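FIELD: query
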Amino acid sequence: MFKVLRDWIQRYFSDEEAVILAVLLFLAFTAVLTLGGMLAPVLAGMVLAYLMQGLVLTLERLRVPGGQRWGWSSHCSWGACWCSSWSWCRCFGIS
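FIELD: result
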């Protein structure tokens, strides 16, 4: 049993990049588990920003002028900030 485990570790973790990847994944996983409540608004904001990029590209494809594009995207981002701050306040028990 130990020989099989030792061979598997030797095969996959003999590469320096694989070890670095494993350490980074472990650290990221630990950070999300321990700080998940505080990181939830940040992660939600990142997801919303990613989704709004599609809106901006659609508006560019429709040749909407830059000022109006900025207006549409800023309205969406303010809505995202409002949702994010609401969840942040709930995280810390602020009414």
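FIELD: remark
The radius of gyration is 21 Å.
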